[in-house]
Amino acid sequence: MSNAERTQPIILIVEDEAPIRRLLSALLASKGYRVITAQTAAEARIRASETPPDLLILDLGLPDEDGMELLRRLRSWLSAYVLVLSARTLEHEKVLALDEGANDYLTKPFGSAELLARIRVGLRATTATGVTHAVQVFDGLRIDHDARNVCVDGRPVQLTPLEFRLLFELARHAGKALTHRHLLMHVWGAGAVGRNHYVRVCMANLRAKLGDDPAQPRWIQTLPGIGYRMVAQDESDA
Ligand code: CA
User: Fold this and answer.
1) Please, which residues have CB less than 5 A from ligand 1, an ion?
2) Long-range pairs for 82-89: beta carbons < 8 A, 24 or more residues apart
3) What pLDDT band is residue 146 in, cutting at 50, 70 and 90?
4) How far apart are CA 178 and CA 196, in angstroms?
5) Stretch(es) of the chain classified as CATH 3.40.50.2300
């Protein structure tokens, strides 16, 4: 195996629909990724243990087992970035999948540019050390985690501790969809789960202070029925 082959990211596609599987496989191979495919949950478990992937594309509707159950089992030992594919009619599935350890989702049908962009974000996340950089920069938004200060276009922004924690949680998972449940668990604590209005109110205040327009967000996107996503960090600072 050449050096180039060894460093190619490995992507496992778990999808029972042959046309979609073939399309994804050809697209990703053409971009230089090493592609492994599985049609069923049982096959996915074998493939993943033979060749642990860097990124997993998982269709939730599998013939032999619920994709969610497969995700739960793989998550106990596999650290790959998980991108879930879901039908538009099954919005609630995505929230469950994110809570079970998926990192992001795409709704079918999706464009190849969108898929490739999400894959790049995912692979950047897995090659990162897992430690949040002390300073993160997102298109004019600078977050200094150690000094706990935030600047927008060079102007300091005063945040409450709760607003800072919410921004911190979004920033350290930049590029990933975070559910209301995730944010409540990690910012407010397990006791707050279900109180989605906590997130809405705090988010509104945070956005107002940052000057981020929810209708045309510069940094924090609203994912209706799911939660929020912070844009990916500027490449030069990653
Ligand atoms: Ca399917």
Assistant:
1) 16, 59, 61
2) 82/55, 82/56, 82/58, 83/55, 83/56, 83/57, 83/58, 83/118, 83/119, 83/122, 84/58, 84/59, 84/60, 85/15, 85/57, 85/58, 85/59, 85/60, 85/110, 86/60, 87/61
3) confident
4) 13
5) 3-129
Burial category of 79 from C-beta neighbours within 10 Å (exposed 0-12, middle 13-18, buried 19 and up) = exposed
Q: Which CATH superfamily is domain 3-129 in?
A: Response regulator (3.40.50.2300)
How close is the Cα of 84 to the center of ligand 1, in Å?
A: 11
Residues of the chain with CATH 1.10.10.10: 135-237
pLDDT 10s digits, 179-236: 999 999 888 887 788 889 999 999 999 999 999 999 999 999 999 989 999 998 765 5
Distance 62 CA to ligand 1 centre (A): 5
Q: Give residue 101 CA to ligand 1 midpoint distance, Å.
A: 19
To the question of domain 135-237 being in CATH 1.10.10.10, the answer is yes
What distance in angstroms lies between residue 6's CA and the mean position of ligand 1's atoms?
30
CA of 58 to the centre of ligand 1 (A): 9
Which tens digits make up the pLDDT trace of 51-68? 888 899 999 989 999 888
Q: 153 CA distance to ligand 1 centroid (A)? A: 45
How is 25-45 classified by DSSP, letter by letter? HHHHHHTT-EEEEESSHHHHH
- The Cα 109–Cα 111 span in angstroms is 7
